[in-house]
Amino acid sequence: MKKIDRFNKKALLFFVVVLILAINFVAGCGSTSQAPQTPPATAQQQPVELTISAAVSLKDALTEIQNKYQAKNPNVKLVYNLGASGSLQKQIEQGAPADIFISAAPKQMDELEAKNLINKATRKNLVENKLVVVVPKESKIEITNFADLAKDSVQKLALGETATVPAGQYAQEALNKLGAWDKVKDKVVFAKDVRTVLAYAETGNVDAGIVYKTDALSSEKVKITATAPEGSHKPVVYPAALLAATKQPKAAEEFLAYLYSSESKAVFEKYGFAMGK
């Protein structure tokens, strides 16, 4: 009898162990089958940060576009690095992190392309602008064309640095073409970017300044007195492209595409830009 009892106890213990192992196995299989359902949702929520190096003259339009885009794409954070196109070009050449570059002239983009620093296939002209003369709102100086900047009544004329600021380069080109550069060069006050030129005119630190039409329209402290004649300088176009070193190519490409959308077009035109051809 004792042998039978020991046998029954061993059999019962074996049965219990097998039952426990079976339960654990079934539970394990159930959790494994559910696991793949969660990662995709988590992956989609990973935040993406894009750095856009762009000409400072685009500031107002890009700020509004930023708000609209981030409202629709809460997982994307847009960070703008705004400045003179030539300065931004140098930063990119020196390895500054950026995903998209928007220049105020083809020259800076051409030089980056020659060094294989942009994705050439994504390059396209984004918007266009015009060059104008502005004076302080209360100014009585009569300037109806660029040649009038040579008048004695204009003692200080603000321009962007011609080495790095496309607006300054366009202005010098136009003044040269119209035969006025030699007459005004000694009274030129150079500024680090086109928004600084605008500030000089707003505060009356200069008698006149040459800026983009969009900059002038953004201020209530200046008035436009003249527009550069057609053909007096190269067309003011703003090319945009992905940088070759972007670490977020998909997100960057999606935002770049949005810049050409009808929604962005409405914003650019609101601030005085024309869409690129």
Automatic annotation (TrEMBL):
Q: What is this protein called?
A: Molybdate transport system substrate-binding protein
Origin organism is Sporomusa malonica
Q: Which UniProt keywords apply?
A: Metal-binding, Molybdenum, Signal
User: Per the similarity annotation, which family is this?
Assistant: Belongs to the bacterial solute-binding protein ModA family.
Q: Which NCBIfam families match?
A: modA (TIGR01256)
Presence of the UniProt keyword Manganese in the record: no
Which residues participate in molybdate binding?
Answer: S57, S85, A167, V194, Y212
InterPro entries per the UniProt record, alphabetical = ModA, ModA/WtpA, YvgL-like_PBP2
Supply the PROSITE patterns for this chain: PROKAR_LIPOPROTEIN (PS51257)
**What is an example of a GO molecular function annotated in this UniProt entry?**
tungstate binding
Matching entries from PANTHER family are given as:
MOLYBDATE-BINDING PERIPLASMIC PROTEIN, SULFATE-BINDING PROTEIN
BP terms from Gene Ontology: molybdate ion transport
